[in-house]
Design a protein that fits this description.
The structure is a homodimer of 554-residue chains. The first copy, chain A, has 15 helices and 16 strands. Chain A has 554 residues and is α+β, with helices and mostly antiparallel strands. Chain A folds into four domains: 200 residues, Heat Shock Protein 90, CATH 3.30.565.10; 71 residues, Helicase, Ruva Protein, domain 3; 152 residues, Ribosomal Protein S5, domain 2; 52 residues, no CATH class. In chain A, the strands form two sheets. In chain A, strands 7-6-5-8-3-2-9-10 form an eight-stranded mixed sheet. In chain A, strands 11, 12, 13, 14, 15 and 16 form a six-stranded mixed sheet that branches. The first copy, chain A, is globular, with a radius of gyration of 30 Å. At the A-B interface, helix 1, strand 1, helix 2, helix 3 and helix 4 of A face helix 1, strand 1, helix 2, helix 3 and helix 4 of B.
Chain lengths: 554, 554
């Protein structure tokens, strides 16, 4: 038996090898979980994390965001710099914000924000450190302070703690804001998975934001805001009692400051007033009263209390914790960035999954089906059409695409575009499970419909359940899937009406042109039969034309 | 500007809200990342984490594993118990192993094992705690100790530390081993995503293991080992220099104990002897010598050193860190659990991704295409055939499936079956990107081939890159994808040969039976024409039959 020979260790030897793993070490080794699995994706992820943080900070501070992204070559590496006009960061926090994973202000609160994990920007720094060995470079100035703070920060990965290399104060022409620079091993690419595409989609979902990009070749692109007011700031909520699990309730009870159970219920949860609290307590019955001391409630009573909560009618969660884009702004964003002939947008009412409020928005932008470059064609003519089919040079990804291509699906979570892992996302799942044929589109089995169309879907929530830390796809909770489908179907019906009307219009147009071709001949025939003069003939033809047009309502 | 009004906080107010997030809190909120996103999956994940740990411990200690899984109902919850005959766990370590995320012995070493993250079993405990409020219950005894230790452990999630509730010593009839019990909110289900399916597939990839299951209805299933020896214990290796990134090299240099650069290179890396070390140092040139003190090497020199490493020829990584199943055992496992008429297995030579050795194994088991229940049919007859198409009651998932269904893909990583997230896995990607039509199978575009076949694929590595912490799918590193395809294609060619031979055989069989039907008539005709007697006729027919059979080589 296990005596511990040359090859096999004893239980004691095995115990001696057990060690704690720092969260930074873990993610350094698993960097693909954070979106750093390829050199091109690393660039997009770095930009996204920095821009998301900048947007969150600006909006929270009530500032209309203006963000500049600059990417430049530094030897074999790329330098990514993101500068914002935000409120700036207090000097003492800079180290931990950029040099520690799992550190942030948004994890512990229930309200909609782009960042939620406290990992992204530190992960970008860690990736830079891993691939180039250089620390992050941060400049930040708070409004009213005479100078900006400049720090060089890296992560001590074995302890998940910031290492601050240099710190000084300097003059900066910005009155307030933050600039982050990180050098990474990366590849700058164009196309649907590009920095440009991320920024363009960010502009669509955030029409109050101005974004500027300078790429490694010096090309500059600017996405100018079309709306001059900030979206309302989502408020923070307490958890809804129906979303709380037994073990969580037990933990909350044992941590409670409240002196009585009634007080605990009122304070810890949203939507629980005195009346609801009493109803819950009464239902839980034996051994529990409004005056029970929360910290002394035993497991069996807590189980009853949990069951009582589930059985009590409580109003749905407050939803001012959510800030959807809104139909008006969504339409604005779509019109500004996408050239199409039909637009429809929809903001659904908030719903709840596992106690978390969320809200779905859908927008469709359908290209002009009559335009030749959007028509389906076979392989033989594809090349020619590809070359000449745009009036303007293609920017990032073509939006919308061709009519024989799958629709362009733009996915957003809390206003952030999701560029990767489309197949793993609940949004894709919902879009492919709908029968689009009934709305007049072609659709391969199990796939997205084929149409010159952009399909935009936004999920806003106090806690978006992502399928990985890289925040690229939404997990398929049934409640979320259901809302997504309802939203898409509603927009699908509107699209179907448009397509029917459009088809009827085009048919009428074709008939009209046929009439225009033949009407003169009819006129000549009539002239011969009725033996009338030229003037009479022309009057008759004009009258006929008018009647026919009225009938077709052109 | 940001003065801090009623709604908008100042930078200072924002700073005050920044907080560290414990890794347990993070995964508690993101429990779907660890495989606890649905009640049925939670049961499978709990069993898997406990069984994987048991197998790792037994094999490391040189014990043939015998593992019992019992799942029983406890009110609305399920109790999952897993008991092994392993070496036991030293009492002082039990708390941290079961009550702390990111704690283990396998993360920091490069060798193949099932566990690698130090999260799984603690995550199962945390899920139990969240949903039922109860701590884990652990009994463990080390060989030679008079009694077993019994502990009740939960996680203090806000600090990621174990809470030990009760601890005592008791008599236990096992001489050594560990028993883990956890009560969770869960749903026990059957089918392809079931505990039974996980155990059956584990038995296929681990024919040296005996597994027993008792399900909530008291049904008992036993998978008995078919091999009486343990697989070789994989050895631990140092990193290969070609897999080390610049930042990592800089970190290693600054942590180095070695007094000289040459010593550092020899000690820190595998495959670097004195000669290779000197070649690297010479190539790095200016400012660096064999005697340079590692901790004083500056960034510019380290960059040159890193480039020199990349430019130096170094033998490939050692591969005794890998323990593939092996062709013989793989075949054994397939034959034992799957009833088919053609089997082929293949263990490819080790390869390397990002410095990590890995190895791909493939096995195919093709059902009997001549058997009627496996033939393709149209929808109209499906129902009838479905009902009567099995000689034996279906166990877990039917293996293989029907000939008009996609092949059953069994994915394994380090001998652990992967049951979920099939679409996201590199194995699936490789299997769908191959043109199976050229091997004689039908295949829908972009899908798995249709055949009554089991396709088993195993990826073994010192570090399997999973797409999430729940370890359900392998990330698509190009080197891994390439090896997977080569292995599948090789097996595909063997399958094609079998299918051609089988088709020829069935054709000959059909012709032979036609001959058997008509030969007597031929005999009678001949008898009339040649005017011969009955005996002569029978001799002639027999002779003809023999000649025809020889020609067809039946």
């Amino acid at each position: 038996m296990p005596e511990g020979d040359a090859t096999h260790p004893t239980a004691f030897e095995m115990a001696a090898r057990q060690r704690a793993i720092s969260v930074s070490e873990f993610f350094l080794k698993n960097r693909h979980l954070l979106g750093f699995d390829s050199q091109s994706k690393a660039v997009v992820t770095t930009v996204r994390e920095a821009v998301d943080n900048a947007l969150d900070a600006c909006e929270e501070a009530g500032i209309l965001p203006e963000i500049a992204v600059e990417i430049s070559r530094r030897g074999a590496a790329l330098r990514v710099a993101v500068e914002d006009n935000g409120p700036g960061i207090v000097e003492g926090q800079i180290g931990r914000i950029f040099g520690k994973l799992l550190y942030g202000s948004r994890f512990h609160k229930l309200s909609q924000s782009r960042g939620q994990q406290g990992m992204g920007i530190s992960a970008a720094g860690m990736y830079g450190q891993l691939t180039t060995g250089l620390p992050m470079h941060i400049i930040s100035r708070i409004a009213g302070e005479a100078q900006a703070a400049e720090l060089h920060v890296s992560i001590d990965t074995s302890r998940n703690r910031p290492d601050i290399h240099r710190k000084r104060h300097l003059d900066w022409d910005r009155p307030h804001g933050t600039r982050v620079e990180v050098e990474i091993e990366g590849r700058y690419q164009r196309g649907p998975h590009s920095v440009e595409s991320y920024l363009k989609q960010t502009a669509i979902a955030n029409p109050h934001v101005t974004l500027a990009l300078r790429d490694p070749d010096g090309v500059e692109i600017r996405f100018q805001r079309s709306v001059e007011t900030l979206p309302p700031l989502p408020s923070e909520i307490r958890p809804h009692p129906h979303g709380v699990e037994l073990g969580q309730l037990i933990q909350m009870l044992s941590d409670a400051d409240a002196r009585t159970l009634r007080q605990f219920l009122e304070r810890a949860f949203s939507r629980v007033g005195r009346k609801t609290a009493d109803a819950i307590i009464e239902r839980a019955s034996a051994g529990l009263s409004a005056r029970s001391y929360p910290r002394r409630i035993a497991h069996a009573e807590a189980t009853r209390l949990h069951r009582a909560i589930a059985g009590t009618r409580i109003s749905g969660p407050r939803t001012d914790c959510l800030a959807p884009i809104g139909e008006e702004r969504l339409l604005e964003g779509l019109r500004k960035e996408i050239d199409a002939s039909f637009y429809t947008v929809l903001t659904r009412r908030p719903a709840v999954y596992r106690g978390n409020p969320f809200q779905v928005e859908v927008g469709l932008a359908h290209g002009k089906p009559g335009r030749p470059y959007l028509e389906a064609d076979d392989g033989s003519t594809r090349r020619r059409k590809r070359r000449g089919d745009r009036e303007q040079p293609a920017q990032a990804a073509d939006l919308p695409g061709r009519s024989d291509e799958p629709v362009r699906l733009l996915r957003f979570a809390n206003r952030v575009p999701l560029l990767y892992q489309q197949p793993a996302c609940a949004i894709t799942r919902a879009a492919t499970q709908i029968n689009w044929r009934s709305y007049g589109l072609r659709q391969p089995k199990g796939g997205l419909p084929l149409a010159p169309m952009v399909m935009l879907v936004h999920v806003a929530s106090v806690w978006v359940p992502f399928t990985s830390e890289s925040k690229e796809a939404v997990a398929s909770y049934p409640e979320i899937l259901r809302e997504l489908k309802l939203g898409l179907q509603d927009c699908g019906r509107r699209l179907a009406r448009y397509l029917r009307r459009d088809r009827a219009l085009r048919l009428a147009e074709a008939q009209r042109s046929r009439i225009e071709t033949y009407l003169p001949h009819v006129g000549i025939a009539l002239q011969e039969i009725l033996e009338i003069g030229d003037a009479e003939r022309e009057r008759t033809v004009a009258a006929l034309d008018a009647v026919l047009r009225r009938q077709r309502k052109i």
